[in-house]
Amino acid sequence: MGGTPAQGRQLRDQGRQTLRKLLDAALAVFDDRGYHRARVDDIVKLAKTSHGTFYLYFSSKEDLFQTLVAEVTEEMRLLAESLPSIEASRAGYEELRSWLGRFYDLYEHYHPVIRAWTEANSQNRQMARNGARVLGRFTDQLVRRVGESERSPVIDAEIAALAMVSMVERVSFYAVVRMVEVDRDRLVDNLAAILHVGLFNGS
Questions:
Q1: Under a CB-based contact definition with an 8 Å cutoff, are residues 29 and 41 in contact?
Q2: Residue 123: which pLDDT band, with cuts at 50, 70 and 90?
Q3: Of the four listed, 41, 51, 58, 183, which is most buried by Cβ atoms within 10 Å?
Q4: Residue 189: other Cβ atoms inside 10 A
Q5: pLDDT higher than 60, residue 122
Q6: Domains detected in the chain
Q7: Closest C-alpha to 66, from 12, 6, 14, 16
Q8: CA-to-CA distance for 184 and 171, rounded, in angstroms?
Q9: φ, ψ dihedrals at 3, nearest 5°
Q10: Mind listing the pLDDT tens digit for each residue in 158-173?
Q11: Which burial class, exposed, middle or buried, applies to 122 when counting CB atoms under 10 A from its CB (0-12, 13-18, 19+)?
Q12: Between 125-148 and 157-176, two packed helices, what is the crossing angle to 10 degrees?
């Protein structure tokens, strides 16, 4: 997968490695400078490549960003589908905890992209819509998974999934950007305990 210039041509191993290097450099630059202040020059310098090479794969910074959006979308789809049917037992807690750990790791890796969605303003409506669409699809997939799990009969699956996404996403954001000082395992332990008891009748 690549940007517009790379579409329709088969990339060899070296080409795929260069593409990955540019995407990883962009994530680091977006993390350091923010999406809107980042420049193509910053990305190619960090990737130790040239502007000419950049434009073999992407037509612009925005084109590269959309490639990252596509990656996030697919990773979140796979993550939502991987949530098992959660039981009220200890085994159910462990499965939920494992899934939340994967969510946190995914969020930590791609948070510069996700942060760009949350920073989108009236001049970036398309970016805001893209972010809302990805999170909406993620929530829809979780609704189905939560609906298949053991939960209190008074809990609505759609509202439960929305609450789950809201809580996990915000807490992960605060931890990743160091607004709160908490290590990954402690955060995941507590999220799993809260959600297992609150949504899945755990004890």
A1: no
A2: low
A3: 58
A4: 15
A5: no
A6: 4-59 (1.10.10.60), 62-200 (1.10.357.10)
A7: 6
A8: 11
A9: -80, -170
A10: 888 888 888 998 899 8
A11: exposed
A12: 120
Give the C-alpha distances (Å, rounded to integers) separating 126 from 130, 132, 185.
6, 10, 35
Q: How far apart are alpha carbons 27 and 25 in whole angstroms? A: 5
Summary count for the chain: helices (H), strands (E): 8, 0
Supply 196's token pair: 């297992």
pLDDT value at 135 more than 80:
no
Q: Which two tokens stand for residue 123?
A: 């001049």
Alpha carbon distance 42, 33 (integer Å): 9
Written as one letter, the residue type at 96 is L
